[in-house]
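Troubleshooting log. The previous structure file for this entry was overwritten by mistake, so regenerating from the original sequence record. Sequence copied from the archived sheet and checked twice against the printout by T.R.
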Amino acid sequence: MTQTKTIAELQGTKPYGKFTDIEVWPGRPYPLGATWSPKGTNFAVFSERATRMDLCLFRRETPNKEEYRIQMMEQTDQVWHCFIPKLETGWRYGFRAHGEWNPKEGNLFNPNKLLIDPYTKAIDGTIEWHPAVFPYPIKSDDPHRYLTMDEQDSAPYITKGVVIDTTYDWEGDRQLETPMHETVIYEMHVKGLTQLNKNVPEKQRGTYSGLAHPSTIEYLKKLGVTAVELMPIHHFVQDSHLQDKGLRNYWGYNSQSFFAPHADYAASGRAGEQVIEFKDMVKKLHKAGLEVILDVVYNHTAEGNHFGPMLSMKGLDNQAYYRLVDDSKEFYMDYTGTGNTVNMVHNRSLQLVMDSLRYWVTEMHVDGFRFDLASALARGLYEVGKLSTFLDTIHQDPIISQVKLIAEPWDVGPGGYQVGAFPVLWSEWNGKYRDSVREFWKADAHGVSDLAYRLTGSSDLYELSGRRPAASINFVTAHDGFTLRDLYSYNDKHNEANGEDNRDGESNNHSWNCGVEGPTDDPDINALRSRMQRNQLATLLLSQGVPMITMGDEYGRTQQGNNNAYCQDNPISWFDWDWTEEQTELFSFTRKLVELRRDNPVFHRRRFFNGRKIQDKNLSDVIWLNPSGHEMTEDNWADGNQLSLGMILNGEGMEEYDERGRRIKDDIFLLILNGYWEGVEFTLPGVKEFTRWEMLVDTHTDEIPVGKDYLADESFLLGPRSLYLFRLKLRRANRTAEGKRKVTIVDQVRKLLQMIQE
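Regenerated output below.
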């Protein structure tokens, strides 16, 4: 280990004062991390078991040459700290932790390894996977080599934290607080969305500024979504095993820091500019009315298991930061499938996550979080539980509890599938919604009873715990799995490009190639594939709950059958801005559905349907119909062969109120889904002589129909595997200046619903 100024050794006789051209003061234990002010920079880092902690400083111009090594002489409440007067922004830094090397007891202190500050706000550099990055001799053939300390200096090969000035002019910006039930989420990738967008300047493509570019924002506004959910932007590493194959970590689920925005997504620089660029992006998206939700990975880090590298927390205090096997502490509990699990039952690890969440809300102005493998965070000593420390702490926090909280409610450990089990305040990725609607449209479902729950917000999962339909984040596809187009182009995954002989990725997808595996010139198959995409988009956007559209599904993006494109940082994963006519039509169909949902509150109710007659008006808020046009019977619900279902959504019967206490009213809609592979005669309900239904959506065609009316009490032929939406055609409803429907209960509506229920 070499250094220019051996200040750390001089401090043995003189702990503080001036050492040649730099001065050292005791500093403060809080806040953790590097905190800059015009007077200098304070450094504070937690380690319960370290016996000594060194601060290493590197100049901006020579980031791989250690300029100063300073012993942090103060430890307060297990936090090591010091203050360097007049230290400017732009300096790179890291720590070296001294202590016991005893892997069998979970202690991995190795001062030869430079460690990233878990609280650093910005990271510079790229990890070079030199053997020195590992705490043990990686080239050894000994199967127990992880028990031996490696003495090579890792500093020249590892990324560093950056001292930054966090002040920023937000110009009055604040969180948008869009009500959850009015939210439409767009799950997207910062780089992937703009990398091929020719309207974005080349330098800005694939960056935060590219996402904030006017052309990108215009597209998102045109689509009609209200929030972007960004795949991981916490700084993450490029895995060595992927680099060896010529691949890259594209998804980013391999965090190196919980505070620093990923530097590769910045067009402006890495010396703190990435933080400013991220803030600029949030501010511009907010001005356009778009919320920013972060997909966050707190359940594990890039340090992996006992054979993994030493980058940060493993070397600072392995036992405090990670879940270790009780009777074999050289090994890690792995509830995530990535090698390690962050130790959320330790107060300092919990503090790290909570401090990170508050930082992104208060300093970066994000509007919410989607927690990757949230069940791993909610585990107590073993089980996932509502009363876990993490969930309790979130619930009582006055800042974090007020933003959008979305759980991916599963992990890979025992009992990890927890859909429906998270407490009030939380929404969840509803995996049961995904599976139910996929099974229905593939005609794999056993009847329609489960589909009915999913269409109405999954009350079977959420109502008894006091939650509402917005607890259900409805999705058909996500980044992990087939795209919507591929869902109906492939029976099997085709992940050969990932270099794992197609072993990776989920094999049970409820997908259907519609007759031919992969691309085809057959016009009938292509028409069927387009219809199936329309079916899923219409189902998603007309269901109660919060819809999540995956980037590119709105135009039919393909990944060529790859359902695990985590390492495909190339056009396989990127958004293609050059569309065919068919793709343009699908986009138009999608945006009109989003608009239809937005303009009609009956499709985004705050409360669950009650399904019973309202006492003073004799109007039910929802009625289920069989193909005869009459109310579903118990036998209908129990029939596993029934795959067509009608649903009347009665906007006149809503018991909901706006922010001023005014009753919310809407039109009356009839939604019909036919999952059969053949056409079905469906009798439109109502009184023939005066009930008319106006068709709004017909997925059997590639256009949303305009001005088509149909008489009640007549058979309507449902196309094979098709969805239809009708609106009861009344005299034009008067609306207030605010656009709210006036109370206009008419005899026609009363007679219609009475007739159906009789």
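The chain has 18 helices and 31 strands. Archived copy saved in two places this time.
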